[in-house]
Amino acid sequence: MVSPLVECVPNFSEGRDAAKIDAIADAIAAGGGTVLHRTLDPDHNRAVITFIGHPDRIAEAALRGVGRAAELIDLRDHRGVHPRIGGADVVPFVPLAGVTMDDCVRIAESAGERIATELGIPVYLYDRAARRPENRSLADIRRGEFEALRDLAVTDPLRRPDFGETLHPTAGASAVGARKILIAFNVNLDSADLTAARTIARKVRATSGGLPHVKAMGVLLRSRNIAQVSMNLTDFEVTPLHVAYDAVRAEAARLGVAILESEIIGLAPREAVESAAAHYLRTPRIPTIEGQIERVPQ
């Protein structure tokens, strides 16, 4: 029988100093989380740490990571192409095994309250854990980013956090939520044309009438002098990786821009990768040795 497991994928506003992310990952591990993966990006100036844990212990691991980030990250000095409101910008809990979405909502609520009361960092509950419709979407919570939210959290009733009040002076605020598995998927253009990337993003994202369950934005990666279509696939079973990639490629071709490469940030379900491989190889299924090993009685 598989033990209950929750995944947590916090995003931190630091993508250039690996030592800081290592320290945050160590804090998560010390709190009982099993760190599986970490990704840093200097242009987004953002890191993603993926860890798992038992539902009874994962909130503590997340709290330790957020606390260490608050010690190491000063948002007043942070610059990057990705929107952010906090040093520990977003802390989502995802049901993996033996756990329901409602369980993850309760974990998010508990973790959010502790982050606010024990660390002094206000928290917005988002996605499935949102208590207000205007906080369901991360984009709405992040509107104006840290710099605008410092005032709006106090003056605008619709922008007030669910836990805490004024933003932490250096750590900002955190969005804590419960959600399905998300795939962070970027397509890099063989061009520095930011207008093209933004045009493509507008065409493919769901809010503009594009692909369902796709969030997208166009950004410039100055360190490489290329433009990027940065996407979140919030339901890969509805819009798979290959569908998102083909849509970006078609829009890029229409604009006369070539694709340089694509990348997955963090971890992705094996099913999603196998589905993309099967599509491009024109085979209905891809048998894997891992799949056979899993069938062997333990």
Question: Which descriptors would you attach to this protein?
Answer:
7-stranded mixed β-sheet; 4-stranded antiparallel β-sheet; 36% helix; Formiminotransferase-cyclodeaminase, Chain B, domain 1; 298 residues; alpha+beta
CATH T-level fold name of the largest domain:
Formiminotransferase-cyclodeaminase, Chain B, domain 1
Broad CATH class of the largest domain: Alpha Beta
DSSP E strands, number: 11
What percent of the residues sit in helical stretches (DSSP H or I)? 25-40%
From the structure provided, what is the oligomeric state, counting identical versus distinct chains?
Answer: single chain
The CA-CA distance between the termini, in Å, is 11 Å
Low-confidence stretches: none
CATH-defined superfamily of the largest domain: Formiminotransferase, N-terminal subdomain
Secondary-structure element pattern, one letter each: EEHEEHEHEHHEEHEEHEHH
Mean pLDDT: 95
Count, helices:
9
Shape: globular
Can you walk me through this structure?
- The protein has 298 residues and is an alpha+beta fold.
- The protein folds into two domains: 5-178, Formiminotransferase-cyclodeaminase, Chain B, domain 1; 183-281, Formiminotransferase, C-terminal subdomain (Alpha-Beta Plaits, 2-Layer Sandwich).
- 36% of the residues lie in helices and 24% in strands.
- It has nine helices and eleven strands.
- The strands form two sheets. Strands 1, 2, 3, 4, 5, 6 and 7 form a seven-stranded mixed beta sheet that branches. It has a four-stranded antiparallel beta sheet with strand order 9-10-8-11.
- Strand 9 (214-221) and strand 10 (226-233) form a beta hairpin.
- Helix 1 (18-30) runs antiparallel to helix 2 (58-72) and helix 6 packs across helix 7.
- The longest helix has 19 residues, at 101-119.
- The mean pLDDT is 95.
